[in-house]
Design a protein that fits this description.
- This protein is mainly alpha-helical.
- It has helices at 4-12, 45-49, 52-71, 75-88, 92-103, and strands spanning 22-26, 31-36.
- It has 2 domains: 1-63, Phenylalanyl-tRNA Synthetase, Chain B, domain 1, CATH 3.30.56.60; 72-107, no CATH class.
- It contains 5 helices and 2 strands; from the N terminus they run H-E-E-H-H-H-H.
Amino acid sequence: MSNLPYKIRLYLDREVDFRKDVIVLDEGQGQYIAEWNVSETKPTDAQLDALSSQATALENNAKIDVKRQTEYLSWQQQFEMIYKDQKNGTTTYKDHCDKVRSDNPKE
């Protein structure tokens, strides 16, 4: 089952600790739930499959978040832009953020 952690997150409708709450393994035959240590009922494959398109979107957006993080400048540079924008009445910081977002749109 591909993107299984995203399907589980959607099924439970919350963040999941995949080190202790739900253990997902992939031993070459595809991902599967090895341990289910939460109070909610373990989902069936059909329930998880019904979340496939949402899980794919969630996974793609997570990849875009990582890409955006690499394109944003350091926090020091961002603060400097904000300071200069406030001092000079410019929109350099906003323009930078808008460009990163438009170059890496989410679904």
